[in-house]
Design brief:
single chain; mainly alpha; Rna Polymerase Sigma Factor, Chain: A; Arc Repressor Mutant, subunit A; 79% helix
Length: 169
């Protein structure tokens, strides 16, 4: 799997760096983040199989880019406001309104999941909470990986619909 990652990274390197550069607005930082993405994906692949390596690589890269931007924003605020006390730095804690909305959405999601068949609930938990691969879930439940994929896809669509209805969509 590692050689497949090497080939994919070499093939996608320029596009990946371009994607990252649009996010962080710095070519050098984008190159560093692309390299870090490769290393993290390689470590993840060594621990467990990853089915969609390209998507995983890009998602890892985007997550690193957004983390970088968050850290840079905090660093800039601290540098600019160095005369102010630490208590003036914005809290990362969610506002009460955001927490209330999050709780409501979690309740909608919980209700949507509860309305699914038991096996489908198991598939969602094993895949999204425990990070199991489709083949591992299929083997554990005695079904085909295609069944796992289809049930997960339908379950996630069901959950998204429930959230959209709950959000007034």
């Amino acid at each position: 799997m590692r050689s497949a990652l090497d080939a994919l990274f070499l093939e996608q390197r320029s596009a990946l760096i371009g994607t990252l550069a649009r996010i962080v607005r710095c070519q050098h930082t984008a190159e560093e983040l692309a390299h870090e993405s490769y290393l993290r994906v390689a470590r993840a692949i060594a621990q467990r199989p990853v089915e969609h390596v390209q998507a995983f690589l890009y998602q890892t890269a985007r997550n690193l880019a957004f983390d970088y931007l968050r850290h840079e924003g905090v660093r800039r605020r601290v540098e600019i406001e160095s005369d102010d006390t630490v208590s003036t730095i914005a809290s990362d804690a969610a506002s009460p309104e955001v927490e209330t909305i999050a709780r409501q959405r979690l309740a909608l999601l919980t209700a949507a999941l509860a309305g699914l068949p038991d096996r489908t609930q198991q598939i969602v938990v094993l895949s999204r909470v425990h990070g199991w691969s489709y083949p591992r879930i299929a083997s554990h439940l005695g079904v085909s990986p295609n069944t796992v994929y289809n049930e997960l896809r339908l379950a996630l669509a069901h959950c998204l619909d429930a959230l959209a209805r709950g959000d007034g969509g």
